[in-house]
Amino acid sequence: MVLGELGSALAGALRKLGEHTVVDEEVMDACLKEVTKALLQADVNVQYVVQMKKNIVKQVNIQELAAGLNARKLLEKAVFNELVNMLEGGGAEVKEKFVPKKGKPNVVMFVGLQGCGKTTTCTKYAYHFQKKGYKPALVCADTFRAGAFDQLKQNATKARIPFYGSYTETDPAKIAADGVERFKDEKNDLIIVDTSGRHKQEDSLFEEMRQVAAAVQPDMTIFVMDSSIGQAAQDQARAFKATVDVGSVIITKLDGHAKGGGAISAVAATKSPIAFIGTGEHIDEFEAFDTKPFVSRLLG
Ligand code: GDP
């Protein structure tokens, strides 16, 4: 179940409440059961769901309901609050959002499956910070996909961002290390390393990621995820997190049909906040992530 379906399921459960003239404990329980079911089917971690249910019950006091307050509104608000809470970590130790420190050579490594929008997102990220006065640079450590370097080069040139890569060197860790060293020397303060994605969660990909990470010692590792991935989100995010020290998530293609598939699961699996979202193919179709508008849209 993708997040869009989760939204409809939750909205459906809440709508049913409106059919009852009196909302007693029984009606409330039935509604909470549906809310819980929707979350579980969306692959949200069961511990989170149990906690969320408890928090909702705490917020919606049945006595208040008896006093004639609008049950649907109250419950809607509680579900909204809890989804926000969950996307912000739900009490788990989600890391602070990363802000590159000016004047320091911040190294940021991008990881994610092929096709998720990683290379596009690297340039968007660089451009975003360039506008804020940083001096970004791009390193292409993807030697697996033919054309990866050309793509990065083209994007970087358009945005007037320095880049580094090689047509002949086959060791991604070496390219990454050389590129980072070059841009440290050139006093770039945001050095972005794009890595290979391949198609599946192949062992060799993960080994390569490990090697690149060891070679460049990133200050931040960003996991890029396609929003339409749905059910696979949790496993995928977990697999990346188990290999490298993911500390941020970027969800791409939110301009498509998916309303944000798997975002909650990715946050839960990586214990990392969503830093940005991609909303189109163009370089400035990129936004800093804001939880509340996202959840409003989900329940909309
Ligand atoms: P990579 O293999 O992960 O490096 O993926 P690419 O950066 O090459 O992107 C794959 C495709 O997705 C390209 O056609 C991009 O233009 C497209 N893409 C990337 N981000 C977005 C986005 O936020 N919205 C849309 N609609 N397309 C995107």
Automatic annotation (TrEMBL):
GO BP, one annotated term: SRP-dependent cotranslational protein targeting to membrane, translocation
Keyword rRNA-binding listed: no
Hydrolase among keywords: yes
Reaction equations catalysed: GTP + H2O = GDP + phosphate + H(+)
Top-rank taxon, per record: Eukaryota
GO terms assigned for molecular function: 7S RNA binding; endoplasmic reticulum signal peptide binding; GTP binding; GTPase activity
Keyword set, alphabetical order: Cytoplasm, Endoplasmic reticulum, GTP-binding, Hydrolase, Nucleotide-binding, Ribonucleoprotein, RNA-binding, Signal recognition particle
Entry's localization field: Cytoplasm; Endoplasmic reticulum
A GO CC term assigned to this protein in UniProt: endoplasmic reticulum
Oligomer and partners: Component of a signal recognition particle (SRP) complex that consists of a 7SL RNA molecule of 300 nucleotides and six protein subunits: SRP72, SRP68, SRP54, SRP19, SRP14 and SRP9.
Similarity section: Belongs to the GTP-binding SRP family. SRP54 subfamily.
This protein's domain notes: The NG domain, also named G domain, is a special guanosine triphosphatase (GTPase) domain, which binds GTP and forms a guanosine 5'-triphosphate (GTP)-dependent complex with a homologous NG domain in the SRP receptor subunit SRPRA. The two NG domains undergo cooperative rearrangements upon their assembly, which culminate in the reciprocal activation of the GTPase activity of one another. SRP receptor compaction upon binding with cargo-loaded SRP and GTPase rearrangement drive SRP-mediated cotranslational protein translocation into the ER. The M domain binds the 7SL RNA in presence of SRP19 and binds the signal sequence of presecretory proteins.
Function: Component of the signal recognition particle (SRP) complex, a ribonucleoprotein complex that mediates the cotranslational targeting of secretory and membrane proteins to the endoplasmic reticulum (ER). As part of the SRP complex, associates with the SRP receptor (SR) component SRPRA to target secretory proteins to the endoplasmic reticulum membrane. Binds to the signal sequence of presecretory proteins when they emerge from the ribosomes. Displays basal GTPase activity, and stimulates reciprocal GTPase activation of the SR subunit SRPRA.
Identification of the protein by name: Signal recognition particle 54 kDa protein
Species this protein is from: Micromonas commoda (strain RCC299 / NOUM17 / CCMP2709)
Residues of the full protein shown: 1 to 300 of 512
